[in-house]
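Course assignment 3, question 2. Fill in each field.
Student: A.L.
Task: Predict the tertiary structure for the chain below.
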Amino acid sequence: MERKMMKIRVEIAEKPYRLTIPADEEERVRRAAKHIKEQIDFLKRNYDASLTEYLAMAAMRISIENEENKERLQMAPEALKLKALASQLDQWAGTYGDREAQTAQTEPAPIVKPKARRGRPRKTDSVKP
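Answer field:
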């Protein structure tokens, strides 16, 4: 099945670019171009540099964001497993912890003394050789 292609125009660093992209990626490409523009505008407001330097720093900032997102995605399965385990522990604590807490509040635990041994130890039946 062939993907439908389309031509769009985006502006990056004050220069227009005509791109041919799959139609279903138009929104993503436009958001990416907007993100680049926002990064460059931020840098222009805060630093005095050339357009090439703004582009390089914008590329660096966006690459760092990308790496952070990759790390989050790699951690996501483990984080979900930990969250599920924490939920199970909360349920267990709620089920068993409440029962123990109610028992402790209503009646004190009985004190059980060990039975004392009296007399001599018992003889066991053993076969003598």
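Instructor remarks: The longest strand covers residues 5-12. DSSP finds two helices and two strands in the chain.
Grade: pending
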